[in-house]
Design brief:
The protein is an alpha/beta fold. Helix content is about 50%, strand content about 10%. The strands form two sheets. The chain has an eight-stranded parallel barrel with strand order 1-2-5-6-7-8-9-10, surrounded by seven helices. A two-stranded antiparallel ribbon has the order 3-4. Helix 3 crosses helix 13 and helix 13 packs parallel to helix 14. It is globular and about 60 Å long. About 50% of the residues are buried. The structure holds S-adenosylmethionine (SAM) and iron/sulfur cluster (SF4). S-adenosylmethionine (SAM) binds next to loops.
Length: about 500
């Protein structure tokens, strides 16, 4: 493509009418002054006040902005401990003791944008630019689904005509089509979530048509002046409003499960947490569905993206775990994703603060799974990973912590998406299906991919889960046990 053609492509991306239709009295939904003022004026709650807020979370009710501001103001160690303990209780109530596992798959690193913090930014001339072709994608899936045993992916793309929506659709079709022989039958990817640029409604409808799981777009920073500094104005990403309404458009296009997030470290974490809550509330109020997931990536070093200009807002480990706890308490029904950007130590602690999804065995360079690079080469990846453990290592540790790893992809294949899944989660009923499917898919993975050591480390846990289903869900137990036994005999992909 010539430079002129790329320019023309860029100019056609943003549809002004698809911003205007969502503005309320000409305004977007992040009330900057109001948020700043609430944070400034909030006082640490008394024990009684804190308990009243936590009781709401435990009842799976959303918190108000004032509640969240109060939690942000907490500094007393005893109160912080109580918040964390409650966050775990909320997680167990809504999501039970399971952690959903997935892997990222980078497919296109071309990008017309110039985000100051990202290794893929257009002005980084040292970045290796690549789009995986069909054969290369197949080879990545052979490793992911055939050797590691993943069932869920998040596919990641820059914004560029070389990896535009048509390429994205084609690449997802390829992923779904691959079957890799394993010990018992075939390994395959059953759910593809997408982290891609914001699209217009027409493109989002096309994307919906290919059968994606969650569509994720992170706002990076909700603080508009900072956003505009981080994303030069002459780029597509420079348009704050186009990005902030990406999920409204996705829901209008029929994509039910949407994932929001902020890149922590660009601006004050307190503001970003309050703004994430405003975003969740706006989606519920205007579109009738809250976010399926919330992500909270923390800024990592990237090639030719010096961080000294915004180091001021670096989030300490302590604050990071606090903000995860607050999000868990504030939006009890949402899935919370913590990626391998973080170290094993932080990920361990975050599991206890209420996260629900983690990746493992992750490679974030293009073609990285096939090449099985153990080192982290900055030229080919977006940033540096903090946790390079294998899926098996992570699963074994989770099992020892009493958490079951789930490869369940039944939800979207049974129509349990969007509002339906939100309602089930709020009622505490989704946990029922998810527990059953978590056990079934965990059994599959243990039999197909785990070492004897991991199988042994998980044996007690899985037996405990089966006993719990028998005692607490007697009506569904016979069917569940039948499926479980069939899986033990080698059948695959049975779900409830
Ligand atoms: N290009 C698309 C976009 O910007 O929305 C999606 C892909 S981008 C590769 C995925 C996410 O990576 C971004 O939304 C951003 O939050 C995160 N990211 C970018 N640079 C990062 C860095 N240096 N450290 C940690 N996360 C980063
Ligand atoms: Fe491109 Fe996304 Fe990186 Fe920005 S964050 S430079 S849009 S890949």
């Amino acid at each position: 493509m010539s430079d002129m053609e790329i320019k023309d492509w860029i100019n056609r991306r943003i549809k002004k009418d698809e911003i205007d239709r969502y503005l309320e009295n000409g305004r977007h939904f992040i009330p900057h002054d109001d948020i700043e003022q609430r944070i400034r004026l909030a006082k640490p709650p008394t024990e009684e006040e804190l308990k009243a807020v936590l009781a709401k979370s435990l009842a799976v009710q959303d918190l108000t902005l004032d509640d969240v501001a109060a939690l942000i103001a907490v500094t007393d160690p005893g109160h912080l401990r109580l918040m964390k303990e409650t966050a775990l209780k909320v997680k167990l109530k809504v999501y039970d003791n399971r952690i959903v596992t997935f892997a990222p798959l980078y497919l296109g690193s071309y990008c017309v944008n110039n985000c100051r913090y990202c290794g893929f930014k257009s002005e980084n001339k040292n970045a290796v630019r690549k789009v995986l072709n069909e054969k290369e994608i197949r080879r990545e899936i052979e490793v992911l689904a055939g050797k590691i045993g993943h069932k869920r992916l998040i596919v990641v793309y820059g914004e560029h005509p070389n990896n535009d929506v048509d390429y994205i659709i084609q690449s997802i079709k390829t992923i779904y089509s691959v079957r890799v022989p394993t010990k018992h039958g075939n390994g395959n990817i059953r759910r593809v979530n997408v982290n891609a640029p914001p699209f217009c409604i027409e493109d989002l409808k096309k994307l919906h048509g290919v059968g994606i799981g969650t569509y994720q777009v992170f706002q990076e920073t909700y603080h508009q002046p900072t956003y505009e500094r981080m994303h030069p104005q002459n780029t597509i990403k420079g348009n704050y409003l186009w990005r902030v309404y990406a999920m409204h458009r996705a829901l209008d296009a029929g994509i039910d499960d949407v994932g929001i997030g902020a890149l922590f470290g660009l601006y004050d974490w307190r503001f970003e947490v309050m703004a994430l809550i405003c975003h969740a509330q706006a989606l519920e109020r205007m579109m009738g569905i809250g976010p399926h997931t919330i992500s909270f990536p923390r800024l990592e070093p990237a090639l030719n993206a010096p961080m000294d200009t915004y180091a001021k807002y670096r989030v300490s480990d302590e604050d990071f775990l606090k903000l995860i706890t607050i999000i868990r308490l504030a939006v009890p029904y949402t899935g919370m994703i913590l990626t391998a950007r973080e170290s094993p130590d932080i990920r361990r602690k975050a599991v206890d603060a209420g996260i629900t999804q983690m990746d493992a065995s992750s490679k974030i360079s293009l073609g990285g799974y096939e090449e099985d690079k153990n080192f982290q080469q900055q030229e080919t990846q977006q940033f540096i990973l903090g946790d390079t453990r294998t899926l098996e290592e992570v699963i074994q540790e989770l099992a020892r912590q009493g958490f079951i790893s789930s490869f369940c992809t039944a939800g979207y294949r049974c129509g349990r998406t969007g509002k339906c899944i939100m309602d089930l989660l709020r009622e505490g009923a989704e946990g029922k299906f998810c527990k059953l499917n978590a056990v079934l898919t965990f059994r599959e993975w243990l039999d197909d991919f785990a070492s004897e050591e991991t199988r042994q480390a998980s044996a007690q846990l899985i037996q405990r889960e089966i006993d719990e289903v028998r005692d607490k869900m007697p009506q569904i137990y016979p069917k569940f046990k039948e499926y479980y036994d069939r899986i033990c005999r080698g059948e695959r992909d049975l779900f409830l």
